[in-house]
Amino acid sequence: MFRDVRIVGERLECLGEHVWNRLLGHRNSSMYQNKYATITKYRSFKMGGSLYTGGSIPTHEHVISMINTLIVYVIIILGFKIFIYTSCL
Predict the structure, then answer these.
(1) In a shared domain, residues 6 and 47
(2) Contact 45/51 with Cβ under 8 angstroms?
(3) DSSP readout, 3-54?
(4) Do 4 and 20 fall within a single domain?
């Protein structure tokens, strides 16, 4: 509903006048404008994903981490199997 208000820019009939005035006051605040500018910058990142991490990492970073972890486990398992095989000879 608030997305529709933001796109249209006019008060919906289902919104009361006091709600509309508070919404406009919030959207015109400097805190909101700063957050909006920051989010817009993050969404415009050319390589996909987002620059914003906020305690998390983008999906492609998760994929890289998972692949590296998988490679380490495969090397450990293969090394252990080779160790077992050569020690049994």
Answers:
(1) yes
(2) yes
(3) HHHHHH-S--TTS-HHHHHHHHHHHTSHHHHHHHHHHHHHHT-TTSS-S--T
(4) yes
Considering the domain architecture, whether residues 44 and 1 belong to the same structural domain is answered as yes
Tell me: do 33 and 57 sit in the same domain. no
Q: What's the domain range around 8? A: 1-51
Residue 48 pLDDT: 59
Cβ–Cβ < 8 Å for 45, 38: no
Is the C-alpha dihedral spanning 57, 59, 60, 65 positive or negative? Answer: positive
Number of domains making up the chain: 2
How is residue 10 written in tokens?
């006019």
| 11-31 average pLDDT score | 82
* 43-89 per-position pLDDT tens digit: 766 665 555 556 667 778 888 888 888 888 888 888 777 766 676 65
